[in-house]
Amino acid sequence: MSTDMSIEIRDEREEGRYGAYLDGRRIGYATWVKVHDTVVLPHAEVDSAWERQGIGSMLARRAFEDAKADGLTVLPLCPFMRRWADLHPLFRDIVRAPRPGEMPAVNDAVHAARTLEGLAKSAGVDQAQHSTSQR
Length: 135
Known about the structure:
Layout (H helix, E strand, L loop, with lengths): L6 E6 L4 E6 L2 E7 L1 E3 L2 E4 L2 E3 L8 H15 L3 E4 L2 H9 L15 H31 L2
């Protein structure tokens, strides 16, 4: 991989994620769900061609930094995010474990966020198809 690559980490929390971009193409993302005063990080993924290049760490750092700046705690459900948090003591004060009985509600919130994201995407596709057919 090129050492002069310029990865941009975009705040796309409105769409439920942070995105990693190279030359305008998304090459990775970390999903993000806010539940009360906690940021839940359920999943992170980097294109296989870009694995082991530090992109997952860039996504994690941005999510944790933003949560800390906003005064939120972080519940890293994704194994990568959990491991990243373990390796970065600067963020230990905001990382928390699930509370007893909390996981069903957290899982429901994550599922609801994913469903809403899917609906928004399909509405955008439907809207784009509708505007194209109107021309």
